[in-house]
Amino acid sequence: MNESVIVSALDLGTNSVKCLVAQVDSAGRLEVITELRRITRLGENLGATGRLLPAAIARTCDAVCEMVQSARASGAEHIRIAATAAMRDAENAHELIDCVQGAVGVTIDVISGEEEARLSFLGVRSIPGFECGPLCLVDIGGGSCEWAMGNDSEITFRRSLPLGAVRVTEARLTGDPPCVESIEQARNDIREMLMEIPDPAGRMAGVGGTFSTMAAVAQCRVGVPVRIEGFRLTADEADTQIALYAARTVSERREIAGLEPGRADIILAGALIARLCMARAGVDSLVVTGRGLRYGLALKIAREALRE
């Protein structure tokens, strides 16, 4: 008889906080109970100062605490928080750790970029039909971009690059709208960093808010119901959206159907990263999924809990 446990996994990113509450059994089957997400822009101005802003800490702490309380109300017996690029980079990361620990008694684990890539890979492997075979995963966040490749359960390559939608925006795309020269500089930066990635093989999956936003915009443009999970994003569609965002101010982007207003200022950078990742992989399309880091973390939490 399979045992099961209700767990909650929080992904504390540079741009947003995501929370998954799920029931997971001993066979690794995962049933979602609830998902929550909030844009908090924890990494606001981090590249310039090296520190988390007090306002960013406060709004992120509030969001995390609300999610932890919601997870407990949903029956979560084990709760973990994994923090990524912004917390790895910030010299005052302990301030947010102390804030959350004092408020709800849960410790924030600042994980490495390689562990972030591994957990995202495990999350995508939980998708029916993606359990085996060669897989190339790209996870675009606010402060970093994770790559993981493998065959079946074995990960053969994983790397975290300092390529995030917030990071690239603050470094290169500060104009409103940005000029042609700054967009080309951003492209060159991204291409140079992607030279670290070996030749990928197998199906390619895209995880993160950039990919889900691009999927939503693509479907809204043609007037079909939005379905993020499993959407196939093409290179041509990515090129179309880059041109769309580059020609508009942040205010004008907020009016684009399918584009979450809080992501309007960073979506151009995200789309550039997405398109150049596809070019590096030599693919003309990829599958978009929401099953990233928090799904992999939920499976890890459950596996450990059921062994106790």
Quick structural overview:
The chain is α/β, with parallel strands linked by helices and 308 residues long. Helix content is 44%, strand content 24%.
Strand and helix map with partners:
Blueprint (H helix, E strand, L loop, with lengths): L3 E9 L3 E10 L4 E10 L6 H4 L4 H20 L4 E6 L1 H5 L3 H12 L3 E3 L2 H13 L8 E7 L4 E7 L2 E8 L3 H8 L7 H15 L8 E5 L1 H13 L10 E3 H12 L3 H4 L13 H15 L3 E5 L3 H15 L1
Parallel strand pairs: 1-4, 4-5, 6-9, 9-11
Antiparallel strand pairs: 1-2, 2-3, 6-7, 7-8, 10-11
Helix pairs in contact: 2-4, 5-12, 6-7, 6-11, 7-11, 8-11, 9-11
Characterization of this structure:
The chain has 308 residues and is α/β, with parallel strands linked by helices. It folds into two domains: 4-113 and 293-307, Nucleotidyltransferase, domain 5 (2-Layer Sandwich), CATH 3.30.420.40; 130-289, Nucleotidyltransferase, domain 5 (2-Layer Sandwich). Helix content is 44%, strand content 24%. The protein contains twelve helices and eleven strands. The chain has helices spanning 46-49, 54-73, 85-89, 93-104, 113-125, 165-172, 180-194, 209-221, 235-246, 250-253, 267-281, 293-307; strands at 4-12, 16-25, 30-39, 78-83, 108-110, 134-140, 145-151, 154-161, 203-207, 232-234, 285-289. The strands form two sheets. Strands 8-7-6-9-11-10 form a six-stranded mixed sheet, sandwiched between helices. Strands 3-2-1-4-5 form a five-stranded mixed sheet, with helices on both faces. Helix 2 (54-73) packs parallel to helix 4 (93-104), helix 6 (165-172) crosses helix 7 (180-194) and helix 8 (209-221) crosses helix 11 (267-281). The longest helix has 20 residues, at 54-73. The protein is globular. The model has no long low-confidence stretch (mean pLDDT 95).
